[in-house]
Amino acid sequence: MQRINLSQKAEKKLLIFLFTIVPVSLLLLFSYYPLVKMFQYSLTDWNGITPDPNFVGLDNYRTVLTNPKYFSVFKTSFYYFIATFFQLGIALLFATILSFKVKFANFWKGILFFPYLLNGVAIGFIFLYFYKGGGTLDTVLTFFGLEDQIQLWLGNRSINNISLAFTSVWRYTGFNFLVFLGAIQSVNPEIYEAAEIDGANQWDKFRYIIVPSIKKIIFLNIILGISGSLSVFDIPYIMTGGSNGTTTFVIQTIATAFKYNKTGLASAMGIILLGIVIVVTVVQKLAIKEER
Amino acid sequence: MAAFNEKYPDIKVEIETMTDYAGQMKTRMNTEEYGDLLMLPADISPTDFELFFEPLGDKAELSETYMGLNDRSFEGVQYGIPTQLNATGMVVNMKVFEDAGINEFPKTPEAFVTALETIKESNPEVTPLYTNYSAGWTLSNWDFTRTGVSGDPDVTTKMAEDTAPFEKGDTLYTIYDVLFQVAEKGLVEADPTTSDWEQSKLNLANGNVAVMVLGSWAVPQIQELAEGHEEDITFQTFPVTAADGKQYMGVGGDYNLAINVNSEHKEAARKLLDWLVNESDYAVDNGGLQPVKGGDYPASLKASQEAGVVLIEENAAPEGKESLFSDVNNMSELGIGSTDLEKQRIIDAAIGNSKETFEEIMNDFNQRWANAIKEVSGN
């Protein structure tokens, strides 16, 4: 058998091609192909089963954008958006503390990151029992003699979204924490030493060294938080099923597609959400560019 | 299955189960591989039957032997046979009623609400009616009681053309009104949002809950939990007496068995289907009526049979209107018999989570229903 001789450059190209073909084809098959299909469905009145749906043009988009019923659910996202800031604050606080010398640092890091590794369904059930009448939270409050503070954490419409947003904070803080910690640790330690010699205390170091050097990462996390809060799904879906004013846009899309069999309309809702997320991302890209 | 193989030793049956049958099956039906014999998913439009399922025979002929054929036929051809017929009504722990001094199950909505209030007063620990608000499918049973409540086998067909079916005095108004009143008077679970289906069955069996609105299939499950005092658990019709002074209880087919039109083993599948509906104990074990005419009443329904409740089966929609109700229902997004969201809305309003009044909700329902009829007929 004759060996095919390739120039080093061609070999490199071939290797890159072969290595990327797997992820790219997966991406095309599971992301772009469904997206194209979904766009196609969104122009029809398909009910999810029938083989010959009617073409309805942009009617579905008109329905979603003109009927306040479909858009008003974005106010639920507001709770999660506000929660994002608490989440970032807590994550930044712990990331800063743990970037200094702390005993058992890896242990604490593990604890903080652990919730992010848990499956969303499991978290939903844990917190369902936590908030339930007579559940963990109520028991703890009773133990401290705070019985009069007990509420229907998920049943009371004025606080149930806060309860759910708190669950989301608990889950995602670990992720933000890790991103922040990575960014903080990439700061050259000599700068801290220099600052110490100049007499800076911990707060000064945080204020004048850490924050400026990870500004971009903070901004990135805020953007992730915004697009995340627009597409909240698993926690409210599992814990309340979107009942009692906790519906989010994604839960509503699922109901439209699989409960009312309006797959065409739901596809249009999906495309609209995609559009909004793209806009947010573009704004982020532009803002970061300007800084440079 | 062992019993089936005794009769047909050459047919090898592989059973596949799914946790979210209704959801996953619809997706699978976009391919050709959806089993040989399957449960016909509930929301397939009758016009599409012939594309997916093998015809099982002439409806008129089959209806001499079987009951409950109406929902799964199209233009006189039958595509599915129900595994069993269920009645929809209330699973009741009669002991709780008797402890509160009520010896007979109420027959009118007013008496029913009063009875639940009496129960609550005599024992505040008891939840008179458990809604199973958060389970996501249980509240639909309230909708299924409509045939029995109206005593009219054409109630669904009529609704599909009524532009105001939620007026005071209408069937669904009456049903929802009971739900609203019971919730408003605090006769349901304290925190509906965290209700728990498995726990609720146990509570009903133990007498911590008095009533749940369900199908008759639930009775054996709850009796099993009420070991030693099974006779306390009975099945009653929705507490309404129809205009002619009689009480009715609606029965309808459960999931229908159907044969995949793309199947390579149609004959074997047909043998299994026939065996399941004709010979197996599936229906009786599950608290339902056998689809074969003249079959035994299950123990769960004997109590109401003795009380003189008339079982009533819905008539088929007239030709050309087979899918009208489901089209209007989907278009309006009211989810009658298919989703729980709008029933949850009624409970939310009743327990003060939202400021809507019952009349406002009913007006909204009427409006959405009327608009949906307009849109569907426009197409």
Automatic annotation (TrEMBL), chain A:
It is a multi-pass membrane protein. GO terms for biological process: transmembrane transport. InterPro entries: MetI-like, MetI-like_sf. It is found in: Cell membrane. The keyword Transmembrane applies. The keyword Membrane applies. Keywords: Cell membrane, Membrane, Transmembrane, Transmembrane helix, Transport. The chain crosses the membrane at residues 14-33, 78-100, 112-131, 162-184, 217-239, 265-283. GO terms for cellular component: plasma membrane. This is L-arabinose transport system permease protein AraP. It comes from bioreactor metagenome.
